[in-house]
Design a protein that fits this description.
Number of helices: 10
Helix content: 40-55%
Number of strands: 8
CATH topology: Rossmann fold
Structural class: alpha/beta
CATH class: Alpha Beta
Oligomer: single chain
Shape: globular
Radius of gyration: 17 Å
CATH superfamily: Alpha/Beta hydrolase fold, catalytic domain
Number of domains: 1
Strand content: 15-25%
Length: about 260
């Protein structure tokens, strides 16, 4: 075991057993969790250098889950989510669509998310999916999960690679039928009744498209606002966040094991 491996294990043991919501709501604990991930860099088919945070489970080979960040970027919170998934037995990889930039204000988050070029994001996600599928510690069963900005891109990623399970947290799902037809696995969606961005009409159209295409989709609604699963935001709803996460883990457990 290397010194960095020992450091990671020591940090991980320090907050073992602490509820996920408590970790994510505490900057110190979140930072400690994030420090147990490893930064990985690859070159995409388009020749671009991209990065991600990797956390391996204690037992391998294991199914893999790719995480796609919110419009804040690949921050400690998303890395901590990767650590949580690794503790559940998944090879967890949190990708970076912002090329290392992390927003600390709404203005920055809006600028960073709007500056993402669709073709580059698709190149990044497809490259990481292929990297995971061919990783020696992976069983070749892949899942993907994303929040808000990342929720939409998680769904898009599942149209680019054979993900066996896709989880969307209040992300855009208004993809055209010809794109949704490329999905290889079922979709689980978590949406908020008071969301002003991803509305009931948008989700209803998605459900209709999935039904028309014969693609399985399960949608849950929560009496909450947008980003209700983010403990650092004003709309955080602990009960709904915990329920959504439990459903997410059950979904991955059924589809990836």
């Amino acid at each position: 075991m290397t010194g960095s491996d020992l450091h990671r294990r020591t940090l991980l043991a320090a907050f073992a057993g602490i509820p996920l919501g408590t970790v994510l709501a505490d900057a110190g604990l979140t930072r400690a969790a994030a420090e147990t991930t490893e930064t990985i860099r690859i070159t995409t088919p388009a020749g671009r250098q991209v990065a991600a945070a990797l956390r391996k489970p204690d037992t391998v080979p294991a199914p893999a889950v790719m995480l796609v960040h919110e419009w804040w970027g690949l921050n400690d919170q998303i890395k901590a989510m990767a650590v949580e998934l690794a503790s559940r037995g998944y090879l967890a990889l949190a990708v970076d669509l912002f090329q290392g930039r992390v927003a600390t204000s709404v203005e920055d988050a809006r600028e960073f998310s709007q500056s993402v070029k669709p073709e580059e994001a698709a190149d990044t996600l497809a490259a990481w999916a292929a990297w995971l599928a061919n990783h020696p510690d992976c069983t070749r069963k892949l899942g993907v999960v994303g929040w808000c900005f990342g929720g939409g891109w998680a769904l898009s990623a599942a149209t680019l690679a054979p993900f066996a399970a896709t989880v969307v947290y209040y992300g855009r799902v208004n993809l055209p039928d010809d794109q949704l037809a490329k999905l290889k696995g079922p979709v689980l969606g978590h949406f908020a009744t008071n969301d002003q961005f991803v509305t009931k009409d948008i989700v209803a159209q998605f459900e209709a498209s999935m039904k028309r295409l014969g693609k399985p989709a399960t949608v849950y609604w929560y009496d909450a606002g947008h980003a209700f699963a983010n403990p650092t935001g004003d709309n955080y709803n602990q009960a709904d966040a915990q329920l959504a996460w439990r459903r997410t883990l059950e979904f991955f457990g059924k589809r990836l094991r």
